[in-house]
Amino acid sequence: MAQIRNFCIIAHVDHGKSTLADRLIEYTGALSAREMTDQVLDQMELERERGITIKMQAIRLNYRARDGNEYILNLIDTPGHVDFSYEVSRSLAACEGALLVVDATQGIEAQTLANFYLALEHDLEIIPVINKIDLPSADPDRVRRELEEVLGLNASEAILASAKTGAGTEEVLEAIVRRVPPPRGRLDAPLRALIFDSHFDPYRGVVAYIRVVDGQVEVGQAIRLMGTGKEYEVTELDVFRPRLEPVPRLVAGEVGSLVAQIKNLRDARVGDTVTSVDRPAETPLPGYEPAKPMVFCGLYPVDNEEYGNLRDALEKLQLNDAALVFEPETSAALGFGFRCGFLGLLHMEIVQERLEREYGQELIATAPSVVYRVLKTDGEVVEVDNPARFPPAAQIETIEEPYVRATIITPADYVGPIMELCQERRGNYQSLEYLSPERAMLTYELPLSEILLDFFDRLKSKSRGYASLDYRYLGHRPADLVKLEILLNGKPVDALSCIVHAERAYARGRQLVEKLKEVIPRQLFEVPIQAAIGSRVIARETVKALRKDVLAKCYGGDISRKKKLLEKQKEGKKRMKRLGTVDVPQEAFLAVLKVD
Amino acid sequence: MRAGLYVHIPFCRRKCFYCDFPAFSGRRPGAVFRYVQALRREIQMVAEALSGGDYPAGRSGPERAGALAGEPGREPARAFSSVYFGGGTPTYLDTDQLITLLETIRETLPLEEDAEITVEANPDPATLTPEKLQALASCGVNRLSLGAQSWQNHHLRALGRDHTAEQTEEAAAKARAAGFANLNLDLMYALPGQTLGEWQRTLERALALSPEHISAYSLIYEEGTPFHRWLQGGRIRPVDEEEERAMYDLAYALLPQAGLEPYEISNFARPGYESRHNLLYWQYENWWGVGVGAHSHFANRRWRNWTTLDRYEAAVAQGILPVAESIELSLEDEMVEMILMGLRLAQGLDGGAFHERFGVTLDEVYGPIIDRLVDGGFLARTAGGGLRLTGEGRPVGNAIFAEFLDPVPVFRRNGSATRPVLRGGFR
How confident is residue A12, by pLDDT bands cut at 50, 70 and 90? Predict the structure, then answer.
């Protein structure tokens, strides 16, 4: 056990976490150069495209250190985005140490901070790595100062590295060996292994990624999952190199995957403890809080007949995404669909993209909503995650909405505009600290709903892309909110309604009808668009009827061409949803998001 | 069922900037002569196909043009009811070449005695001489279609036309002098920069020539044309939708006042002077196109000829029909096409003809769609189970046509795998 090191890499997005992992894998020879594809840990196509890591994995590296000993280094990959802090914390629990990667050209960013504090909470040994020192604009001294002043780390121990050129790779490996403590479990104690991730494999069932804390687990052993009490027989144990490689047993301190004919991912909950049936442990390992969805939206098939297929696709996705929740809902406008809960906006976008790309679903997504807590006049408290389900105004005593503490790190030049933005978004100023004369850290308390409303894009545009954001849920707070309804052709469209702050209802109503006027194409009939609070119409626009749209010529030689033209036109219409007599494009349902 | 013959002449002095028809302006020596020879051979082949040979087949192999030849138990073939020389500029050919073609057609193909024979012409005096007009008239050409397009010379120049408005007037006079009693003028509106006043003047000047027929087209930016490129590149700005609608409305106001009734979306005629050939298209009858890029529709098959002179002539030289592509239409294809074409007519789609052809009524196939569009005032039911666009529906026809493109659920549910009625060919 003294030769094992379990560690992870934490970083702000784009600071080079995956590239550093690649170098470690390459250096230790876990993959031959020929097998090496860039950023091997980012497997999914989507991850590759967006340059972010969604699903973590673990990989075993064999390393002969300068002290002459062979070490087993288990690298556990973590996602780098704020939406996935839940998954970050799961992987941290399987480690004793963390490499904290900071971009030498940018310094500490909001997620650097967030991840750093998470690692501290898990009592990990933190090894700072200043990456990208090969870049001409690298300023390692500044980053060192920030590490000391902001995080209180001993910056003289920070390793200078370039994951791109490979500089510093060996120093990183040596630091892991010397500074990360070996696992502390007891080999002779009853088996306790932590499930820190899992995925569903169509051939083998659930594959649970485990960190053995005490004792050992063997192929053929009868095991019990302490959370569910269910028992299984281990059929396969593997380690990752990074491909699965079967092993007969995993012992305390080791990391690997376990297959035991578990049919349903829900039966192998992440955070659960695996123990042995013959000699069970008395107490489980500390588990995790289950992921709590913060953002909800309705997902509807464009074609109602696809409802069953959409459900199948969501179920399959859920197999590999414990944080995704969904339940059936119906909308007067959109028919049958699902209310889906996500960790955040990025998570929502990724799920939508995967549904469309991997499962061929054509979707209409309604605007995302937070969970409101409504105290009704009869004393009942209801949680509402769908504006359409809001109780009538007369029955509402108070409404509470979720607030977050947002940390924004930005070049000092942009502090003014960013404070304006936060102010506009109903933020409560908390603090402003300077990390250096050039860089500032702003803290605000903000309603989460305001962050859903393109806050991140605006933040980026106000700071020329330099500001970074991280936020944590604080709790629900009372707010003066009203439900804004949208009517098309005089009929309310439930899927377009939204909850807004009373003071800004007029402005939002106006923006919304104007935006809808832009996205709803002209049709045979004139389409009035109205915004209303209760029965009071506060804004109105009209999409004029089509005036002239007819093929001027259609003779013998034109038929097939003109038919194709009409089919194209029709194809565009199929992507729309017909509400009464009005064809509404999918963008309309997200228009709520795009106004400002 | 009836059939018409289309003859494509792909030559022009210059190609207009909006034109996407096969038309060649380069003057390769002997090209026109060789083309006329090839056309004559193709016409011979058509005659052979009609008298019992094969006609262009698709994947399913050659099909006998039995209905044309006359099969036992069926009415024997009748003659073509119209011939249409289109282009390009048919009058780019010299008089002798035109006469030769007309004679070849008369000698080889069955032609109704009173067949409508149309020739398209450009008003430029270089290709349209009084002698040529007289020769055409004496050879039985009884309808002349002049590409007038506009009465503003700056628009004509912008369109790439090679004539002036004055020359259009002279051409019309020459046509009348040669004895043409059925004259069409092609006009265009929604031209870049065109004003409503200019369009009004164009209409008035055209009407002053007392044509029996006017085709009034809004400009289409066809892909592959210079106009399309210029539009994409922002070099020209299209007329806005309201303005285009006003121009359309103006044509529908002025032309009927002068006795030219709209009988198709873009076509107006004095009663009795509707183009019989073009009606074949809109009534989804049969047409056989000869020449480069010509399209044909016979029975349940549609095909088109090669679009380059080389390939076209090479095929003909080998004694093969110069067909580039031929498809067998499904029943659904035919339904949709018959509707798309039929709804263009003022009298609308003939419910009886639809039922006779497919064994189902329009309402059985499209009931809910029809109801909705009728309720909205865009479609009207006609006697005999037919449909027509209303005055409201006509200018926005595409949105209505598109509704009929859907598969035909009722029809499919009934599972009619076999064609319910005897179909195809002359009857």
Answer: confident
Angle between helices A345-359 and A307-319 (to 10 degrees): 120
Residue A487 bridge partners (DSSP): A492, A530
Q: For residue A520, give the nearest of A549, A490, A488 by alpha carbon.
A: A488
pLDDT at A196: 85
CB within 8 Å of B270: residues ≥ 6 apart: B212, B213, B259, B260, B261
Residue from B152, B144, B147 nearest B122 by CA: B147
Strand A249-251 versus strand A295-301 pairing type: unpaired
Q: What is the pLDDT of residue A594?
A: 62
Neighbours of A247 (CB within 10 A): 17
What is the predicted ipTM?
Answer: 0.86
Peptide bond into B88 cis (omega under 30): yes
Domains and CATH numbers, chain B: 3-280 (3.80.30.20), 331-414 (1.10.10)
Distance CA A129, CA A161 (A): 7
Which residues 6+ apart lie within 8 Å of A446 measured at CB? Answer: A403, A404, A406, A422, A425, A426, A427, A428, A455, A471
CA atoms of A430 and A119, how far apart (whole Å): 24
* Nearest chain A Cα distance for residue B416, angstroms: 24
Reduced 3-state DSSP string for A382-436: EEECCHHHCCCHHHEEEEEEEEEEEEEEEEHHHHHHHHHHHHHCCCEEEEEEEEE
Q: Does A554 sit within 8 Å of B344, measured CB to CB?
A: yes
Place of tokens 């310094």: A107
Distance of residue A568 Cα from the nearest chain B Cα, in angstroms: 9
* A55-64, A360-369, B120-129: range with lowest mean pLDDT: A55-64
CA separation for the pair B143, B165 (Å, rounded): 21
Closest alpha carbon to B388 in B367, B402, B374: B374
Q: Taking CB atoms and an 8 Å limit, are B395 and A548 in contact across chains?
A: yes
Interface residues of A toward B, Cβ cutoff 8 Å, are 522-525, 545-557, 559-560, 562-563, 566-567, 569-570, 573, 581
Measured in whole angstroms, the distance separating CA A461 from the mean position of its chain's CA atoms is: 22
Contacts of A548 in chain B (CB under 8 A): 218, 241, 244-245, 248, 395-396
Phi, psi of A235 (to 5 degrees): -105, -20
CA A16 to each of CA A88, A89, A117, A145, A210: distance values in angstroms, whole numbers, following the listed order = 16, 20, 19, 20, 26
Identify the burial level of B56 via C-beta atoms within 10 angstroms of its C-beta, where 0-12 means exposed, 13-18 middle and 19 or more buried. buried
Cα A565 to Cα A305, A523, B405, distances in angstroms: 26, 17, 11
Q: For B393-406, b where at least 16 C-beta lie within 10 A, e where not — what string?
A: bbbbbbbbbbbbbe
What is the rounded CA–CA span in Å between residue A142 and residue A105? 9
Structure tokens at B300: 């349940």
Cβ neighbours of residue A152 closer than 8 Å, sequence gap 6 or more:
none
pLDDT tens column, B90-114: 999 999 999 999 999 999 999 999 9
**Chain B interface, Cβ < 8 Å to A:** 6, 217-220, 241-242, 244-245, 248, 265-266, 278, 280-282, 287, 289, 293-297, 302, 304, 336-337, 340-341, 344, 372, 376, 378, 394-402, 405-406
Tokens in use for A283?
A: 């107490």
Beta bridge partners, B406, equal: none
Domains, in order of start, for chain A: 4-179 (3.40.50.300), 192-276 (2.40.30.10), 295-365 (3.30.70.870), 373-479 (3.30.70.240), 482-594 (3.30.70.2570)
Which stretches of chain B score pLDDT less than 70?
Answer: 1, 26-27, 52-78, 407-427
Write out the two tokens for A222. 């009868």
> Quick one: pLDDT at residue A321?
75
